From TrEMBL, chains A, B, C, D:
Residues 148-285 form the GFO/IDH/MocA-like oxidoreductase domain. Residues 181-200 are annotated as: Disordered. This is Dehydrogenase. Pfam families: GFO_IDH_MocA, GFO_IDH_MocA_C3. InterPro entries: Gfo/Idh/MocA-like_OxRdtase_N, Gfo/Idh/MocA_oxidoreduct, GFO_IDH_MocA-like_dom, NAD(P)-bd_dom_sf. It comes from the Bacteria. Residues 10-138 form the Gfo/Idh/MocA-like oxidoreductase N-terminal domain. It comes from Aquamicrobium ahrensii.
Amino acid sequence: MANDKKQGPIRYGMVGGGRGAFIGGVHRIAARMDGEFVLVAGALSSNPERAKASAAELGLDPERTYASYAAMAKAEADRPDGIEAVAIVTPNNHHFPAAKAFLEAGIHVICDKPLATTLAEAKKLAGLVEKTGRVFVLTHNYTAYPMVRQAQEMVAGGALGDIRLVQVEYPQDWLTEDISASGNKQASWRSDPKQAGAGGATGDIGTHAYNLARFVTGLELHSLAADLDAFVPGRLLDDNLNVLLRFKARGTAPAAKGMLWASQVAPGHENGLKLRVYGSKGGLEWVQADPNYLWHTPFGEPKRLLTRGGAGALASANRLTRIPAGHPEGYLEGFANIYREAAAAIRAARIGQPPPHDVIFPTVHDGVEGMAFIEACVRSSRNDGAWTKL
Amino acid sequence: MANDKKQGPIRYGMVGGGRGAFIGGVHRIAARMDGEFVLVAGALSSNPERAKASAAELGLDPERTYASYAAMAKAEADRPDGIEAVAIVTPNNHHFPAAKAFLEAGIHVICDKPLATTLAEAKKLAGLVEKTGRVFVLTHNYTAYPMVRQAQEMVAGGALGDIRLVQVEYPQDWLTEDISASGNKQASWRSDPKQAGAGGATGDIGTHAYNLARFVTGLELHSLAADLDAFVPGRLLDDNLNVLLRFKARGTAPAAKGMLWASQVAPGHENGLKLRVYGSKGGLEWVQADPNYLWHTPFGEPKRLLTRGGAGALASANRLTRIPAGHPEGYLEGFANIYREAAAAIRAARIGQPPPHDVIFPTVHDGVEGMAFIEACVRSSRNDGAWTKL
Amino acid sequence: MANDKKQGPIRYGMVGGGRGAFIGGVHRIAARMDGEFVLVAGALSSNPERAKASAAELGLDPERTYASYAAMAKAEADRPDGIEAVAIVTPNNHHFPAAKAFLEAGIHVICDKPLATTLAEAKKLAGLVEKTGRVFVLTHNYTAYPMVRQAQEMVAGGALGDIRLVQVEYPQDWLTEDISASGNKQASWRSDPKQAGAGGATGDIGTHAYNLARFVTGLELHSLAADLDAFVPGRLLDDNLNVLLRFKARGTAPAAKGMLWASQVAPGHENGLKLRVYGSKGGLEWVQADPNYLWHTPFGEPKRLLTRGGAGALASANRLTRIPAGHPEGYLEGFANIYREAAAAIRAARIGQPPPHDVIFPTVHDGVEGMAFIEACVRSSRNDGAWTKL
Amino acid sequence: MANDKKQGPIRYGMVGGGRGAFIGGVHRIAARMDGEFVLVAGALSSNPERAKASAAELGLDPERTYASYAAMAKAEADRPDGIEAVAIVTPNNHHFPAAKAFLEAGIHVICDKPLATTLAEAKKLAGLVEKTGRVFVLTHNYTAYPMVRQAQEMVAGGALGDIRLVQVEYPQDWLTEDISASGNKQASWRSDPKQAGAGGATGDIGTHAYNLARFVTGLELHSLAADLDAFVPGRLLDDNLNVLLRFKARGTAPAAKGMLWASQVAPGHENGLKLRVYGSKGGLEWVQADPNYLWHTPFGEPKRLLTRGGAGALASANRLTRIPAGHPEGYLEGFANIYREAAAAIRAARIGQPPPHDVIFPTVHDGVEGMAFIEACVRSSRNDGAWTKL
């Protein structure tokens, strides 16, 4: 085993992602795209029948189709050809216990965001990752779009000067009306505090927006003031959040400020994640729906439209680029980049090495930060929007 | 005189707007565009030499070129062919005394925003307008773009259902560096509290954004939480404002929320005024730099791109439209629409009538509301961003 | 008279442009915008009653309201305060005789395009302009948008290297159905060969597209191959033209090639004039509906979005710019630029000088070239699209 | 074998696509994305050393790594676990002989475009496909973007009425300078008549544009007039083509007309494939670089922006959609759709059935049509752009 394990594709299993789920299928395509992973085990649903049927559809060996992640973690850890990694793609409330089980079984974890349902859980998980030394990848997938990497490299390289302003938003419209009532599975668990945690839109998409802003700017948040609403009558979790941000100062420059808007009730927006960053020397703009473009204005010069793979593309973008400029890459390629980075980290772990220095992925610490964001938003909003430290 | 006064173009004078000024020239073109106004008098600069030279350039009768607005108000009121209206286009600190002088002289006033430098002044002016019965037009010019009128009509007609969210922003980049130091006249007075009042970007462009949001939605603001900054060292007034908005509830629907961002330090933005409104039935988006378009998404249907003069254009837009769809109208036409509306009101006043019902223009009350906004922003920001009623 | 004539605004008259006309109103606004012209006489319609009513609406002196251009040319030439210039805004078939009458009366002419209904007429007019020495301005208004001037200056300055390709198009959709049947005045005369000449869309908008391409590139056309169609049953003139272009070679570089498409039956296009030019060193793109932008790609570098009044704007654009970047100028400002240039030429003529060197306007020679284009298109199309020299 | 062959993934081999090739990697990702194909054999390069090294990189069994497609076709046909399908991704001149070899060996073929280097070869291949009954898929991949399918369904359903105009273009800029001289492999073979055939840009991208227009409109071409150029000195094949199109009439409506432009010397364009179709009732526009959008204007109504997966998406688009609206799919997903359709056809062939009725892919007949297009373009251009039947 040792040998082929060091060279062959990575055997992985999946928790959640049965029929009717959205994100599980995304993970599977992402894992498959570069041929780095092979799916060999699953606990695809908490409903045993659905778990079985889903596994059959995916061609999983019935013997490696499990009724629970606990059973799966145990059994796979015991197999000589057991999984090296697991992808956890359940509703939020299962992230923590499942991740814990696999980490303790010595299995690397690729986990959906938000990391947990409470900050306390998240911190426990961070401790466990440190203790076990396993690779832990949180799928804040937007950070792996090539032009987001380009933005990150540009900011880090000083192209914008001192960062002053961050404007980030993630509007959607799919919860404009009360569709959980009509049985929409995606909507139901996301607006159920027991499954989703304390944040609705805050946890589901606000964390993505926040993570993206942090990733590109490298800034740390000092405090926030948040106004959370549930506009649809009867909805238990927020479907809109308006947040002011104050970042920690760096050096002698004034501390950066920002605004974050996330909404599931903004008609006309499908997945309108947009990040804008402004500094003393220039500005950047990136839009998820059109991810192959990055607008850059050096102050006092004409706007430039940078393209993935095109003139001006930097190393950090090019290493995650598969096809030529003008042929669009999309969401699945961005997601697959997370898996590609995870593969590099796991392959390094096979031989006892840390990930190569240019490999970047969201970690359990990003997950802790995300949970701190959610809890601060909820706390601030309950406290009439008072400024609240993370 | 009486007769021709009832039919001929409206004689007007100008206060401010001498050489090197920006907005004065805009007013003159706007007044000229439809042939409704003729400029016959001026106190174009507080610098007598510049006032004289500017007047000569404009072909004004030297006899009607005044050294001060006080002199002008008095002299013109006494002439049988005196001005019927005055355009006040000075730095903010002169708005109040000049407007007062002309109102008291019985002359209609077209005044730049913000209305004054304090809310107290603004309220006095409102009282004076009521007392004198003169027409008072505040040049919140963006409200007169045809597609803004369309947006207003659509919201009023219920196309968006209950309004839930308002996102408005007005980013610029011209103050990214400290250009007042190098003698830029426009920059200098705008960042001088004595001339501009308590707000920098807040007064200059924040009020435009706020006014536009109010105009289109018809909502009234309940309170705000504001974070004002001056990012450029040494700048005395804010060059950036991040604001959360809470509107007053209407009927049984949840109160609408909003965010307002205005900045003069956002590289890549020239005059990026943008308004987005979302309700229970749909969303709208309008961008000042591309003003002939209005995006409309009825929830659950494809996005529609409405165009000025095109299919779907409503009466309120069409009455301010001069040329066919696809031939862009711009800022000057929008500004001229304010003058066109002012002319209609002044012509009605000539015969003792109120303005026709479909004539709309920003009034002294909008100016009071704008000053209340500025003061609330400053107060909130000084109070660490606390929620502050208007 | 002499003195004030040398300094005051230019007195002009108008032929055509009565009630219900579109382009007459545009000319009047354009003439008024910069205060350079004052309208004092008119023969506004061939229908005497409409002529009279239209003149009254415009406040013209009844004494200077004429029943025909012939009468107007004669009477105005005899007046000491007679018009210095005339704007001819009639259907095409009146351009030639009216222009001839005014030129012969010593009056400068501002004339709508196309210049005439035949190339022969056009050439006669060119001779007459030369003979009389009068200023003759053809309102190919698109050439006066600031960013078109910028494009022209960039090409002339070598920013694109050797020009290889020109792609120009002017799609509209207003004649998709047979609206002339239902009495649309604009549609009726444009599709009547007696009034419009041999070209339908070719004369109305094809000439604009062709003129714009010539203006920006400075290239001369060698030959063309044209496919003209009238897609709407019963329409007598073309409503669509597909044309291949071969330009004359310059120096040792290969001759440039091009394509021109103009259509009145392309649903979704209002006035979709677009020009793209490609050379050995870069490319440009300009779109009339969004005229404040100019895309420029230096080969091998990122695309740049140049803006009117913004960073990178050149002298030729800035001299025709009225307001700051980000505040859009539109069609009327572009049109007014033609009048501004005409005013400069006429003022120079007042003192016996040629126009200043930086003053640019389309001349009678552009009109001759336009008529040659129309006739070549029609000839080529009738000859099964054979390559046809101009 | 029989059983698992009927259910398991499809075993396929690849001809071409070794190190340094672009399109081979695309095919492999596309084949992998949905888990329908597994790569088990290859003749990856005509250079034996590169073939071997490339195969090793891909983890191919050395025994199934072949020095030639001839050897591969023979050996694989003889294996009980031999490949069911082959992907041919070589320079054009190998398409015909390789496809012939595999068809004759009873193996399904997925082949890059253009189909061959001559029309005669193409027709022979069509005969062979008919004779062998094998599945033959030509990778005109753009036809498998969901919004292209949507466009096709809309046109077929009459949403545009009678089609009048087709405007299609495919500009690139990568051959603006002479990069084949500097050893660019992609550029070298594409501009070598021996490897590419008679067309340069015509074969490489002109055929894509033509195929896309045919696919969406369902129109057949009657004749064309083409102007082909090689703007870069010394280039042997065309790098730009300007073409007028005349389609065959259908019913009583006038025959549709069109224009096709393809270029490799248009700075600013990466892969600017764009299709616009106009009919008596509406217009459509689709752009490859932003493939999740489809503009639709029903004549007389506002423009609509249809989105993949969004409101208004039709069945033909939805069946090829993997992820929600607003999460962009790209070029690889479009390409993978071709493989998904190929898989459906091959699975049907396994049980002796024709492909399901809703499965659509470009066939050998599209390849014949493409070769006819290339030859007609070359013939017309050599004949001074004369109208030429296909």
